[in-house]
Write a structure and sequence with these properties.
By secondary structure, this protein is mostly helical. The protein has 17 helices and two strands.
Length: 394
């Protein structure tokens, strides 16, 4: 593998800045050319630079490659000023002043889910908060504390997992009981992202930059996760939804000219969306680990299993079993959990053995209060594992 330079945040900010400029300038036949420097910068950062550790390397590379597809949508595939509008916006922003276009573009760039925009996928996002500013801030503080505790408990327990240790055995070779522990990774990612989101909302609303209604929950209702399709489409975060949809629509309708109302087109777009998502994470893992691993396969398999799942549900519906009763949902939750336990190790296993947890030192109230280690490194013997050992092995 070639020697990589140190990651350059300034270049990344430049790519974002060019994307922002593309949203501010008025519609032009030349606006799409701005995508070329964005693409060049992002490819250089993803393949030729590194922040020096697995956790930051993977996350930053994913962020960088996501910007390629995000800016491709906003700069090339969509005439944003004529096609996209805020809720309540009556006329195109293209005729507005530079100042108005500046703030309009800033709102668009900072809202990947389309919150407050006409294109917001309202059926896939939980209702917007309607509480007062003070009540919203208090609720978000409590949620932040909840996510910190959940993350810390699961993370500290994970320190004792031999399959989560740098250089340890891989989850892909583990037995069923150990493979179950991959769900801990799902929980920590969920809690970590939700925690960051609630903190941002507190700062933004607290400073008066936004209002509570701008901050619907990042994740959907967990009770909806009784199929793999719903787990990805309704429960998991929606930060990639728009650019995945726009890019897959472009390939299906503009490039291949597939019929719009076709089962084949529907599933073709499904596979394209998961392929793009997989490619983003695949490059992220390569940037961090220096090798290609199973992240692309993991995401493509999601499309495969959703196709299979849809077929089973369609067959069941023909026999009158289409109503999602509590019992069916219960078995659905087991099915989703079983699928994640089977498929996730191919993605997260190499990350863990590559040192993801060792590099990702997070604030830990448990270890801080018990040992004075507020940003601990993985340790198989810690306060929680010791307590559990006394309970189960006394």
């Amino acid at each position: 593998m070639h020697q990589k330079a140190e990651f350059k945040p300034g270049l990344f900010l430049l790519a974002w800045g060019i994307t922002f400029i593309s949203l501010v300038v008025r519609p032009s036949a030349y606006r799409g050319w701005l995508f070329i420097p964005i693409l060049s910068i992002c490819l250089y950062l993803a393949f030729y630079t590194t922040p020096g550790d697995v956790a930051n390397g993977s996350g930053l590379a994913c962020f960088v490659v996501s910007l390629i597809f995000y800016s491709l949508d906003l700069t090339v595939l969509t005439d944003v000023q004529n096609e996209l509008r805020l809720v309540g916006q009556k006329t195109s922003i293209s005729a507005a002043s530079l100042s108005d276009r500046f703030w309009w573009a800033l709102r668009l760039l900072s809202s990947p889910r389309g919150i407050g925009w006409v294109h917001e996928p309202t059926t896939h996002i939980l209702p917007h908060p309607t509480t007062s500013r003070v009540r919203f801030l208090w609720d978000q503080i409590l949620r932040t504390a909840k996510f910190i505790i959940i993350f810390d408990v699961v993370r500290v327990l994970s320190y004792s997992n031999p399959y989560f240790q740098k250089g340890g055995p891989s989850l892909t070779d583990a037995g069923l009981l150990w493979r179950l522990t991959v769900l801990a990774q799902v929980i920590t990612v969920y809690a970590s992202m939700a925690r960051v989101y609630t903190i941002y909302s507190i700062v933004s609303v607290g400073l008066g930059l936004t209002v509570p209604g701008d901050w619907p929950p990042l994740f959907g209702y967990l009770g909806d996760a009784y199929t793999v399709r719903r787990s990805w489409g309704r429960v998991w975060h929606q930060l990639m939804r728009r650019f995945l949809q726009v890019n897959s629509d472009f390939l299906a309708y503009k490039v291949l000219r597939l019929p719009r109302k076709s089962t084949f087109t529907t599933y073709f777009k499904l596979f394209v969306a998961f392929f793009i998502s997989g490619l983003i994470h695949h490059i992220g893992d390569y940037a961090a680990l220096g090798q290609w691993h199973g992240s692309l396969a993991f995401f493509v398999y999601q499309a495969v299993v959703i196709t299979f799942e849809d077929a089973v549900i369609a067959i069941a519906a023909k026999f009158g079993f289409d109503e999602p009763t509590p019992l069916k949902k219960f078995f659905g939750y087991l099915w989703v959990a079983a699928w994640l336990i089977y498929s996730m190790p191919m993605w997260s296993g190499p990350q863990m053995t590559g040192g993801f947890m060792e590099d990702d030192a997070e604030f830990s109230p448990i270890m801080g209060l018990s040992r004075g280690e507020w940003y601990p490194k993985p340790d198989p013997v810690n306060v929680l594992s010791t307590a559990l050992s006394k309970i189960f092995y006394k």
